[in-house]
Amino acid sequence: MPASPSTARAINDRSALGLLQDRGPLTAGQLKQLTGLSRPTVADLVERLGAAGLITVVGESGAARRGPNARLYGIAADRAHLAALDVRTEGVAVLVADLVGRVLAEASVPIEGDTGTGPAVQRVVAAVAGAVGRAGAERLHTVGIGAPGLIDPATGDLRDSAGLPAWHRSLSAALQERLPGARVTVENETNLAALAEQREGAARDRDTFVLLWLGHGTGAAVVLDGTLRRGASGGTGEIGFLPVPGTPTLPSATDCSGGFHTLAGAAAVVSLGAEHGLPTPATTDGPGAAGLVREAVERVRAAGRPAGAGRAEHGPGDRSAGVAAGEPVATRGAGAGHPVGRTPRPVAEGRPVVGGGAWEEIPAAGEPVVARGADAETEADAGTTVRREASEGGPQEALGGEEPPAVGEPTDREPATAADPAGTAAGADERFLSALADRIAIGAASVVAVLDPGCVVLGGEIGHAGGDVLAGLVAQRLRRMSPLPTEVRAGALGGSAVLRGALLTARDRAQDTLWSDPSRSPVPS
Length: 525
Hints:
Layout lengths: L4 H19 L4 H8 L3 H13 L3 E6 L10 E5 L5 E8 L2 E8 L4 E8 L6 H19 L6 E6 L19 H12 L4 E6 H12 L8 E6 L3 E7 L2 E3 L30 H5 L1 H10 L10 H17 L65 E2 L4 H8 L4 E2 L37 H27 L3 E5 H22 L5 E4 L6 H19 L10
Parallel strand pairs: 3-6, 6-7, 8-13, 13-14
Antiparallel strand pairs: 1-2, 3-4, 4-5, 8-9, 9-10, 11-12
């Protein structure tokens, strides 16, 4: 059934406006060529969109050309103004932009932890109003907010979440009250970061991928067949609550401590760096941890060797991933990743040695442990067989009775590698990045096993700071842990992805409203 004239006009108008948004100003001839429409049809839609105040003449094509055919048409950027907010526990970042997304003003407001709900909301509202004034806008058409926590899919409101400030839940209503006529929408911060990475960042060529957010906290966003998936209750991607090996407790319904957050959140990353002797940043938030990772990557690159260089090749019995309880393990000597003269440690059943950047497998009770490496060759030549004794307390030290460290527990000496037997600074950076990749791979492997996304983007400040070095280390581990081929990419936008995603969402919704029926779009006075 052919489309009605009004439907055909609406389709043509949206097509032309979309081209102007994506490609910038175009002449009527270029619109004709790109849309495939006839010259009279293009002339009609240009007149119609101009009368609605949605496009305007912004220049001419070619300095020597004049006349109607040379006119460049562009979206009327001042037709509407937008605001985007990135709401964090410690404060809010704000920007104001025009209808094409050009940023006109920015602001940030810190919110101390002991600030009450009323004063906190007032500060944010004042910051938004100040940015609107500096942008020269009279009013806002649409406001996009990115915030941590669960968004109720039925109401679009931020749900009550333990651990988040109460003012987060009051902000949307306060902005709606202070900005009459504006559309205020709230979205989970990680979902917005995924949108930004797909539209403008590392996932531009992917319709299916998972963004693993690594910042102050952890999270994940799932995009399948080009559609963001939120789940039945809006909680898709709450990976911080994922139970993982290597933590002393299990997460609860109200606290993600003991989950993946405990392995890969900013505080855990800073603690891991301290265990490896790296300088401790002034803050343990996302930017602080990202600075630690970035400096480690830079030192490794400056040393001319990628993280993990010189490590032994991984054979069938040596993985960088988790192992089932009771599987055999071969202890290693100094040349294979343990300090000279120090007895290697076993791990609790199914538990990773997180601080050392490697996983070790556990022999069953009474099973011989085949020693390898420089220290072990002497014993092997002498015909010595080392056995592990069983006890009610779990696996014991194969050679010395030393208990494994808990997550976050510092070791008295970092292990040396074959390429770095003396434990130099560059070697400490390598071991830190390898240990961090071990941790990240646990969460990534869980997502890959369930969703098979084909691509994992390491987003947030930490993922961006790790760059291709950290992404490559995680990819190596995923290849050993999963039969599913998965590309691992570093996020391109870092911590700014949330604010950018909030702006893209606000722009899309404003344009959807204004472009839905140009004939009825009022021209602002």
